[in-house]
Amino acid sequence: MRDDLAGNAFQPQEHFDAEIYKRRNVIERAFNRAKHWRAVATRYDKLATTYRAGFVLALIVEWLKSLGDRT
């Protein structure tokens, strides 16, 4: 078992890096927003390239929405 995963759930980890957690949280939130798109969540596309294109499109639209909120 890896050292960073070892320990009890009730005991805090000794070496918690807040910066790594922030970066990971941003990525997880982006994926969760992209999953709200029906084509991404249900994976209707047969080809992996078509699915990837839809996923990238969903992320771009979400990114543009986030830029609009900063006015």
Radius of gyration: 17 Å
Number of domains: 1
User: Secondary-structure element order, as H and E?
Assistant: HHH
Mean pLDDT: 78
Strand content: under 5%
The largest pleated sheet is described as:
none
- Anisotropy-based shape: extended
> What is the strand tally?
0
The proportion of residues forming helix, as a percent range, comes to 55-70%
Extract low-pLDDT stretches: none
Helix/strand layout:
Blueprint: H1 18-34, H2 38-42, H3 48-68
Helix pairs in contact: 1-3
Feature tags:
mainly alpha; 3 helices; single chain; 71 residues
Summarize the structure.
The chain is mainly α and 71 residues long.
Provide a descriptive summary of the structure in words.
This protein has helices at residues 18-34, 38-42, 48-68. It starts with 17 loop residues before the first helix and ends with a helix. The protein is built from three helices and no strands. It has one domain (15-68).
